[in-house]
Design brief:
- The protein has one domain (about 1-120).
- Helices cover about 80% and strands about 0% of the residues.
- It has helices spanning about 1-30, 30-40, 45-65, 70-90, 95-115, 125-130.
- The longest helix has 28 residues, at about 1-30.
- The chain is elongated and about 45 Å long.
């Protein structure tokens, strides 16, 4: 089961990272094409560059080992960006072909988050405190 979960995690994470990187590149460097698209959604043109930069930073956070707190923030950030994109497309009445990419990235990031290995999860404070016992409190046996 663990090997299967690990495979699911890496497929979803790599596919989501590829999608986030590709859309981030378009948002940062392909400004003319994206500005009209973003204007249709009602956002200012400079906002698209910021979204692209956030996507790059999120991909780095997801792929770099360790730093579980940063990973949790990256998952949350991608979730907020994709749900915001989904809502924006729905409000302006875009066709499904415009909505599909953000839905796909949203599903992939949720799968990645759900199947992430224990080494990439935050350890709750309650678990940390249970395994920690200061030297001064140990009872000799």
């Amino acid at each position: 089961m663990s090997k299967r979960n690990n495979i699911i995690y890496w497929i979803a994470t790599l596919w989501a990272s590829l999608g986030l990187t590709a859309t981030g590149i378009v948002q940062v460097f392909g400004k003319n094409a994206e500005q009209a698209h973003v204007a249709n959604l009602g956002y200012p043109h400079y906002f698209i560059t910021l979204l692209g930069i956030w996507k790059f930073l999120g991909v780095i956070a997801l792929l770099v080992p360790k730093f579980p707190l940063v990973k949790e923030w990256a998952y949350a950030g991608v979730f907020f960006v994709m749900t915001g994109a989904l809502y924006s497309h729905l409000v302006v009445g875009d066709p499904f072909s415009e909505i599909y990419p953000c839905v796909l990235l949203l599903v992939l990031i949720l799968i990645s988050w759900y199947f992430r290995p224990a080494s990439r999860k935050l350890i709750p404070l309650t678990q940390k405190n249970q395994s920690y016992e200061p030297q001064s409190r140990r009872v000799p046996q």
